[in-house]
Amino acid sequence: MQWANLNEQTVYENRWFRVNLADVVIPDGRHLDHYLIRLRPVAAATAVNEADEVLLLWRHRFITDSWGWELAAGVVEDGEDIAAAAAREMEEETGWRPGPLRPLLTVEPSNGLIDARHHLYWSEQADWTGTPSDAFESSRREWIPLKLVPDLIARGEVPAAGMAAGLMMLRHLRLG
C-alpha cells in the first residue's frame, strides 16, 4: 500500500523552505494533487549537568501563540555537519558550548506534509562562553531538573512534540 510521487513542481521557494505540488498515485490508481513542504534538516542540542538538570530555553512561538521549554535548535546550513550545527545552535542560543555530543533521537515532526527531520543531541558537559549571540531567541535559559520533565509535558509546558520526545528519552537515559 505504497503511494508513488510521480512528479513535483515548486510553487514557492525561499532560503528556508520550498512548497511543492506533487502528482501522487495512490494504491487504487487514482491521482491526487498533494502539497508538501521541503525543509533543511534541523539540529538541536542540550546538556545535562552533574545534578541531572537539563539546559532549556523558555520561548514564545508566535505561529501557535504558545510558550514552552525547548532545546536550542536551528537549520543545518548547506554542507554543515549535523552535530556541528547542533553545537553551534546551542552556543548561539544559550551561551553554553557543549562537550562531545551524543545522538539522542531523530524525529519527523509532520511527515504527512513536511520532509523535515529534527536531529537531537545531548552532552554531559558544557562550558559557559558568555551572553548568547542569539539571546533574542528566548526569554530565558535555565537548568531544569530532568525528574520534572514528565510534569512539564503533562502541563503543556513542552508543546513541541519532538522536544517532548527528546526530553523523555534523555530522562530515561539518565534516570531510568
TrEMBL record:
The Nudix hydrolase domain covers which part of the protein?
Answer: 38-171
Cofactor(s) needed, names only, are: Mg(2+)
InterPro entries for this protein: NUDIX_hydrolase-like_dom_sf, NUDIX_hydrolase_CS, NUDIX_hydrolase_dom
Mention any Pfam family matching this sequence.
NUDIX
Instruction: Tell me which UniProt keywords the record has, alphabetically.
Output: Hydrolase
Asked if Hydrolase is a keyword of the record, the answer is: yes
Q: What is this protein called?
A: NUDIX domain-containing protein
Which species expresses this protein natively? Streptomyces sanglieri
